[in-house]
Specification:
With 400 residues, this protein is α/β, with parallel strands linked by helices. Helices cover 32% and strands 28% of the residues.
């Protein structure tokens, strides 16, 4: 399936990684990771740190799937309000999920510092705007439940929002513990580090077409008729993992993104904070290291790549119009745009861990707007499962 269309900014900015292999022999390893995007890279990181021998395969060139289309806003908020999530999974589990998302941002920063790599990680504040009176009511309810559980949050009134950020909305939730990255750059940096320091092998254009479970291992067969023997498999191919599952665990959506030409320092809002809103469909906004504005949103259910792509011009116009409602004096001009496909679950939570129909396989399915924070959580949890360390896997299990 076509994951994205248009010109993803990160791929143009960084260029393709020229260092890649294709599998042309039968090989053996401890853990085979399917998918070389940010989720697969993080899984490899935690396993390599635990001295577990890993191999990554991807049917595309490494890191060029949906990772190149990510807008890479790291927020502890899940797409589902905490008060709604409590109704779905219970108070203890909902709060634990939110806290794990918060912790994952700090974990990612620690990984970057420890490996001494560059992924353009940058701490940012965040604004969740009330688009209307109903949105403000929801934000007030959300503020109360987050404060109750000591999650970082401040409720800004309309007057405070206008005074501090020059945004004319009913109010907003504010926090100062969000972040942003260049996902494609970071993904390749993690892979390159472990290729050099952990003997990690990453095979591009290597499509696993069949998996055979044996008594104490698996055999993966590739489209080129090679085999990979491993103790365990980690399935981290994004929404394409749906091909491995009988039941439908997600809804496919398309999202649309545009990136401006470089702007002057005076063209940005205060703190260059991450911005999103309660309106549905909504937009989300961030900046880039080279002083551009990235705006995306107006998601809609995915039907097929052709229909998704035909909507791109119309979606770009709608996104730009909504942005200019927030910042009417902005001189934003579009330089890049694309659309991508992502999965979304009913409760907004990922699926992590084992599945009853797939022995010797761990799934790392970080769906939704929190894909990268979920990837960090999944990667560490799968490492713990492999080495036999207790985890909170029930929170993200397939039968929750």
């Amino acid at each position: 399936m076509d994951l994205k269309s248009g010109l993803p900014f990160w791929l143009i900015k960084n260029g393709l990684n020229k260092d890649y292999l294709t599998l042309d022999d039968n090989i053996e390893t401890e853990v085979l990771i399917i998918g070389s995007g940010i989720t697969g890279a993080l899984c490899a990181h935690f396993l390599c740190e635990a001295k577990v021998k890993c191999i990554i395969v991807d049917k595309r060139m490494a890191s060029t799937g949906s990772t190149t289309a990510s807008t890479a806003q790291l927020q502890y908020e899940i797409d589902v309000f905490l008060f709604d999530l409590i109704e779905k999974v219970g108070e203890a589990n909902a709060v634990k999920a939110y806290r794990k998302c918060l912790d994952s941002i700090y974990t990612l920063e620690k990984i970057i510092k420890k490996l001494k790599i560059n992924g353009d990680f940058d701490w940012r504040s965040s604004l969740y705007l009330a688009s209307n009176a109903a949105g403000l009511k929801d934000l007030k309810k959300e503020f109360d439940v987050r404060k109750k559980h000591q999650l970082p949050v401040t409720l800004l009134t309309q007057k405070q929002l206008k005074s501090k950020f020059n945004i004319d909305k009913k109010g907003a939730l504010y926090n100062d513990c969000s972040a942003q990255i260049d996902t494609f750059k970071l993904c390749n940096a993690i892979l390159d580090y472990h290729k050099k320091h952990s003997d990690l092998l990453v095979y591009s254009h290597t499509d696993v077409v069949k998996i055979a479970n044996k008594k104490d291992h698996i055999i993966a067969y590739t489209a080129n008729k090679n085999t990979i023997k491993a103790k365990k498999i980690v399935a981290a191919p994004g929404f394409e993992s749906q091909n491995l599952l009988k039941e439908k665990v997600m809804q496919l959506n398309s999202t649309y993104v545009l990136v401006s030409k470089p702007m002057k320092p005076t063209d940005f809002w205060k703190e260059k904070c991450l911005i999103w809103e309660t309106a549905r469909p909504y937009i989300y906004i961030r900046t880039t290291e080279d002083n551009r504005i990235m705006v995306g949103g107006f998601d809609e259910p995915f039907q097929d790549p052709e229909r998704r792509d035909k909507l791109m011009e119309k979606k770009n116009e709608a996104i730009l119009k909504r942005f200019k409602k927030l910042f009417p004096d902005s001189k934003i001009e579009i330089d890049f745009y694309w659309c991508g496909t992502f999965g979304e679950t009913k409760d907004g939570l990922p699926f992590i861990g084992e599945h009853k129909d797939h022995p010797n396989m761990y799934f790392a399915l970080g769906y939704g707007g929190n894909g990268i924070t979920f990837s960090v959580i999944a990667a560490e949890m799968i490492k713990d499962l492999y080495i036999g360390k207790p985890t909170d896997s029930d929170l993200f299990s397939f039968d929750r």
